[in-house]
From TrEMBL, chain A:
<dbReference type="InterPro" id="IPR036388">
    <property type="entry name" value="WH-like_DNA-bd_sf"/>
</dbReference>
<keyword id="KW-0813">Transport</keyword>
<dbReference type="GO" id="GO:0042803">
    <property type="term" value="F:protein homodimerization activity"/>
</dbReference>
<dbReference type="GO" id="GO:0016236">
    <property type="term" value="P:macroautophagy"/>
</dbReference>
<keyword id="KW-0963">Cytoplasm</keyword>
<comment type="similarity">
    <text>Belongs to the VPS25 family.</text>
</comment>
<protein>
    <recommendedName>
        <fullName>Vacuolar protein-sorting-associated protein 25</fullName>
    </recommendedName>
</protein>
<dbReference type="InterPro" id="IPR036390">
    <property type="entry name" value="WH_DNA-bd_sf"/>
</dbReference>
<dbReference type="Pfam" id="PF05871">
    <property type="entry name" value="ESCRT-II"/>
</dbReference>
TrEMBL record, chain B:
<protein>
    <recommendedName>
        <fullName>Vacuolar protein-sorting-associated protein 36</fullName>
    </recommendedName>
</protein>
<dbReference type="InterPro" id="IPR037855">
    <property type="entry name" value="Vps36"/>
</dbReference>
<dbReference type="InterPro" id="IPR040608">
    <property type="entry name" value="Snf8/Vps36"/>
</dbReference>
<dbReference type="GO" id="GO:0043130">
    <property type="term" value="F:ubiquitin binding"/>
</dbReference>
<comment type="function">
    <text>Component of the ESCRT-II complex (endosomal sorting complex required for transport II), which is required for multivesicular body (MVB) formation and sorting of endosomal cargo proteins into MVBs.</text>
</comment>
<dbReference type="Pfam" id="PF04157">
    <property type="entry name" value="EAP30"/>
</dbReference>
<dbReference type="GO" id="GO:0000814">
    <property type="term" value="C:ESCRT II complex"/>
</dbReference>
<dbReference type="GO" id="GO:0043328">
    <property type="term" value="P:protein transport to vacuole involved in ubiquitin-dependent protein catabolic process via the multivesicular body sorting pathway"/>
</dbReference>
<dbReference type="InterPro" id="IPR021648">
    <property type="entry name" value="GLUE_dom"/>
</dbReference>
Length: 176, 382
């Protein structure tokens, strides 16, 4: 975890109190959103358990003895949901959520440009090849979780840049 | 026998009947008198003998005239007697049956017995001397002090009481008005002392004297606006507002241009001495400050705290001052700011909240309290 780059706000005590001033709060929430996304990207996590997250370094800075309260965490997560980076897996209880530090559309674009760069258009590859294959090693989407990959590909499909297909239990995709 | 006076069987206020005995004859010394068969009544104040046959024949002997009693037991064909030794005849005495007698004692002859009980009760009353407690009203003048029972008597005693209370009250207020006069003198005294200290400034060592001086200087309103001098209603309030503004202007400058209404209330009333202001009157007068275009204005903060501030007191300057101060100290609580700027904690907090409202500072709320930091969210760009 030592490689995580904390923003300057993380060392700033008021960062952990929701600011009543609207303008200040806007900046504060923005900072929190980008911190959550960069943290999950660096940790390669795709889900957050709200209760556990309270004690994770993300919301709890032990060095300055400040932690974000439950309410504030929910405020931040809700803000992320609005920008499309987060989805509740349990919409009512709001205990578990999926974080997408890139939206499916962004992932789709990333994958498509990678395909183009390797001139793999009009070829079919399996999903496994895309995320776990040797060729994709070093790309950002290497190790991407399946559910997110599917969503990314579906967004490409809706733009008619790819087509999902399945044969014998294994899924594949064809890029155009 | 010459100590007896003609009288009636009515009682004085506070007087009570103790005992009564039939068949008693009176002796003047050793001699028989014409008062043979009567009812003897002992009260707390006097001895009354009432003739059985002629009811108008009533004799009264005041107990104050009795020196001591002596018992004479009954003998053969002789009834028991009580010898009553008497004082000299008082100078103011109402007419009695005998104008002069050589004897200084009378004898009560108990033909129907009962002498023992009577003697006992008689001695008891002589010891208690209850008549002395209301003697002044009992003895003077032929008619005076004779409070007859009934409505007249009650009315008279009520009137007397009223008179007494009137006297007490006027006496009490006499003292109060003296005190008021003194209060004015005290205010003047404080002013002269203040002036003296002002003249000698520099000669006397600073610190304590300076503090003392500032107390004195802030004291004393020579002719406070009162309802008596300025009537009631709008005129009173507007005059009061003018005076408040005049008195407070300098004091406000000294403490940073702003003061809570509670502080103002205390200071003004201390300065007014005896002519105290009610909180309502003061609030009312303060409400007029703005319409009268006076240099001091009232302001209510969002939190409900009401203050008086100088009109020249610039909010923007306060904000920029506070912002700079917080930036300089990295972080401040209301407490710390109050100490730094010499204002009350409430006002310091109001300043911080005001500055926060415009984004100059941001807050850090913990169990240890509320701290304000420079608003890096807005100022830092990286």
């Amino acid at each position: 975890m030592a490689d995580i780059e904390w923003p300057w706000q993380y060392q700033f005590p008021p960062f952990f109190t929701i600011q009543p001033n609207i303008e200040t709060r806007k900046k504060q929430i923005e900072a929190w959103c980008s911190l959550v996304l960069s943290y999950t990207r660096q940790q390669k996590t795709y889900s957050i358990d709200v209760r556990e997250s309270q004690n994770s370094p993300l919301f709890n800075n032990k060095a300055i003895n400040r932690k974000l309260s439950m309410d504030c965490i929910l405020t931040v997560l809700e803000e992320l949901r609005k920008t499309g980076h987060l989805e509740w897996t349990d919409n009512k209880t709001k205990k578990q959520c999926l974080v997408m530090w890139r939206t499916p559309e962004e992932w789709g674009k990333l994958i498509y440009s990678w395909i183009c760069s390797r001139s793999m258009n009009n070829t079919v590859c399996t999903l496994f090849e895309l995320t776990e294959g040797e060729e994709s090693e070093g790309t950002e989407f290497h190790g991407l979780e399946n559910w997110l990959l599917l969503r990314a590909l579906k967004s490409l499909e809706s733009q008619e840049l790819a087509e999902l297909m399945s044969f014998d239990g294994s899924d594949g995709v064809k890029f155009f | 026998m010459d100590r007896f006076e003609w009288g009636d069987d009515s009682f004085l206020p506070g007087e009570k009947q103790v005992l009564q005995q039939r068949g008693v004859a009176l002796y003047d010394g050793h001699e028989k008198t014409s008062f043979q068969d009567g009812i003897l009544v002992l009260s707390t104040h006097k001895l009354i003998w009432k003739d059985v046959t002629d009811r108008s024949r009533i004799l009264v002997l005041h107990l104050s005239l009795v020196v001591f009693l002596e018992e004479q037991p009954s003998g053969f064909a002789k009834s028991a007697k009580i010898v009553v030794h008497l004082n000299a005849v008082p100078s103011q005495k109402k007419p009695g049956p005998v104008s002069h007698s050589a004897n200084h004692f009378i004898r009560l002859s108990f033909r129907d017995a009962g002498e023992r009980e009577f003697n006992q009760a008689f001695s008891e009353q002589l010891q208690k001397r209850l008549w002395e407690q209301s003697l002044p009203t009992a003895t003077p003048g032929p008619q005076g002090g004779r409070h007859r029972a009934g409505i007249m008597g009650i009315e008279r005693s009520l009137k007397q009481k009223q008179k007494d209370t009137d006297k007490d009250i006027s006496k009490a207020f006499e003292d109060l008005s003296k005190l008021m006069e003194k209060a004015k003198e005290m205010v003047n005294l404080s002013k002269t002392i203040a002036a003296k200290i002002k003249d000698r400034q520099g000669e006397i060592s600073e610190d304590e004297t300076v503090k003392f001086k500032s107390y004195l200087l802030s004291m004393g309103i020579p002719d406070p606006v009162t309802r008596e001098t300025h009537g009631t209603g709008d005129k009173y309030y507007s005059e009061l507002a003018k005076q408040l503004s005049k008195v407070l202007e300098k004091q406000l400058q000294e403490c940073g241009g702003i003061m809570t209404l509670t502080d103002v209330y205390c200071r003004v009333n201390r300065a007014r001495g005896m002519e105290l202001l009610s909180p309502e009157d003061m609030l009312h007068a303060c409400e007029l400050l703005e319409s009268l275009r006076l240099p001091v204005r009232m302001k209510m903060f969002d939190s409900g705290v009401i203050v008086l501030q100088l009109q020249s007191h610039d909010e923007e300057r306060v904000i920029s001052d506070t912002t700079d101060l917080v930036k300089e100290k990295t972080s401040l609580t209301a407490d710390e700011l109050a100490q730094l700027q010499g204002v009350s904690v409430i006002l310091a907090k109001e300043r911080l909240l005001l500055t926060e409202k415009v984004g100059g500072v941001c807050r850090d709320e913990t169990v240890e309290g509320l701290r304000f930091y420079s608003n890096l969210f807005l100022t830092r760009t990286d």
